[in-house]
Amino acid sequence: MSAYSYTRGTLVRAMVRAFNNNGWGSYSNANTDGAIIKTTPTRMNTPVEDPSTSSSQIVITWSPISSIEDTGADSVFYYSLEWNQGSSVNVWQELTTPNVLVTSYTMTSGFTAGVTYTFRVRAKNSIGLGVYSFTILVTPASIPSKMATVATSTVSTSVKIAWDLPNLNGGTIVSYRVWI
Questions:
Q1: pLDDT, tens digit, for every residue of 45-88?
Q2: Global pTM value
Q3: Structural domain span for residue 124
Q4: Gap between the Cα atoms of 70 and 51, Å rounded
Q5: CATH number of the domain that 100 lies in?
Q6: Domain total for the chain?
Q7: What are the Cα distances from residue 98, in Å, to 27, 61, 64, 90?
């Protein structure tokens, strides 16, 4: 038996012949099916925060892999999306259901608006789980709530405008627009 180095996706067909003290016999017929060299899937692209993420839901999407090079020359069974719940400890929890092939995930509980969470994804085929994608940071937040009534007062020759902070809904105020 000889060892050869083949790349992922290579179709391997074989013929065999035997040797004894009288010499070499004839080669067998080549096998008709062959065998394809398979590996675990490669690193996937980084998942993406969907624009519908808000203070009440986190939506993560990712691109499926399909090329022979990416899938390891095998069918992808499922994508494993994991998250780190924001603790300083590197603890990851799988969110997707094994053997269910989806390319998005929606969380509606178990998180706090305004807290940053880390997500990563990898593919699984019959050989095993592939390499993790690079991570994405997601901070669930919505637009600020409606502002309360604005108070105005006269200060000498100027007008002072004041208001209470709105509900931030997990976000950070970066500016205000005042209409007079």
A1: 999 999 999 999 999 999 999 998 899 999 999 999 999 987 66
A2: 0.73
A3: 48-138
A4: 27
A5: 2.60.40.10
A6: 1
A7: 45, 16, 15, 22
